[in-house]
Amino acid sequence: WLPDNPYPFARIEPVHSLDLSEEDSSRQAKRLREAVEMVLLDFPERIIKQVRDLLDRATDPPI
User: Fold this and answer.
1) Contact between 50 and 57 (Cβ < 8 Å)
2) From CA 36, how far away is CA 26, in angstroms rounded?
3) From CA 48, how far away is CA 41, in angstroms rounded?
4) Measured between alpha carbons, how far is 42 from 48 in angstroms, rounded to an integer?
5) 34-48: b or e for each residue (b if 16 or more CB lie within 10 Å)?
6) pTM for this structure?
7) Among residues 52, 57, 24, which one has the least CA distance to residue 37?
8) Pick from 46, 54, 4: which is nearest to 29 by CA?
9) What's the rounded Cα separation, in Å, for the pair 22 and 50?
10) Per-residue pLDDT tens digits for 12-59
C-alpha cells in the first residue's frame, strides 16, 4: 500500500508472462493440476467437483 492516503491505495505493475512451447505448457498444466488435486484431498466432494470443473475449462481457448 502506498502511504499518505486515507484509504488503501496501491500501485499496480503488470507482470509479463513468458511464452512457453506447447509441450512445456502442457507439462506445467499437468504439474499444476496434480498439485491442486493433492491440496483438495480433505475438501468436501462439492468443492472438489467445482475446482475440477474450473481446471477443465482452463484449457479452453480465450473468448
Assistant:
1) no
2) 15
3) 8
4) 9
5) eeeeeeeeeeeeeee
6) 0.57
7) 52
8) 54
9) 26
10) 899 888 888 888 888 888 898 999 999 999 999 999 999 999 888 876
